[in-house]
């Protein structure tokens, strides 16, 4: 799996983060122990752990050392080669990097652990518990980006003629529109509100839900889920941010609401999104992640409703098959995916907060599609982890600090359903996060 092509891909990805732009390099030499490239007339030799050690690394059994990050912000794990303590050494002919900066990033970027595993949760997703992120406690650490910054440090000292264009920290709010109306009938309305009371015990928010219910009798646009879409759009616009809204177009099922993508009230929403310079994308339904035909049909419907070409996507429930879904998305004309994150754990599933091309392990080449990895999601914070407002703020601040240091993009997901259903969390976590970091 760790072929010459795969290692070259990893170097290209890390260099793009390190330099701030894509640069061409050629492989000069490759073996089981190293890969040497030529970069702007400089030879850089990357030492890598051998096959047996790589297998142990993949299984979470290889002992790692720790070194200071590029700015001494924290300690980061590394595989040291040949007992070397220094990051690199310079000879007349080349720069040799003494830590394996390629193997762990390749596993993270390619999802090799997920690709090889048969472990799945109740929703047929690869569990965080079985990931290399869990095995080496990497979820809160953008390891690929940290390694890129180490490489940048070497280049700044040893290759001063190579241009470096550091990227600035950005935030991209994203919103999965799983349903457009909460109250679609009296029975469902009462059941929904009573369920909220049982689950949260928050009388104030339950009374707010009843108020919305009464208002909906005269105007469906006052439904809290529909108003949630408008509120998300308004708050992004007020903060100078460009949201991506993912809409569904599947049939009703146990996991899909089956709302009408051609609903009359949505037409004005699509117009406002477009007028604000924001993006409408596809939120493919629960059963699409291995079915190209169903995926294509749903993309066609969203394109018809929005009157836009659909090129952005995030899978419903974050359901993804590393052996199939990227291939299907690419074939369906999707250019950018936003699915790569764990539902049950916030952080850096791919080891990076930068856009990158995923790797096609079957064909030993990068995909054309780009991935914008998901960093944090509302339901991860409030439901899976059950954080308090204070704890949620702290973890988002920790993640944003680490992204700022490497000039990445904080992709955050907030559902329209949790704008007025968890008002305190929305105001004191999501909006406070935006205000602190723009």
TrEMBL record:
Residues 97-183 form the DUF7033 domain. It comes from the Bacteria. CDD domains: CE4_u7. Pfam families: DUF7033. This is DUF7033 domain-containing protein. It comes from Chryseobacterium kwangjuense.
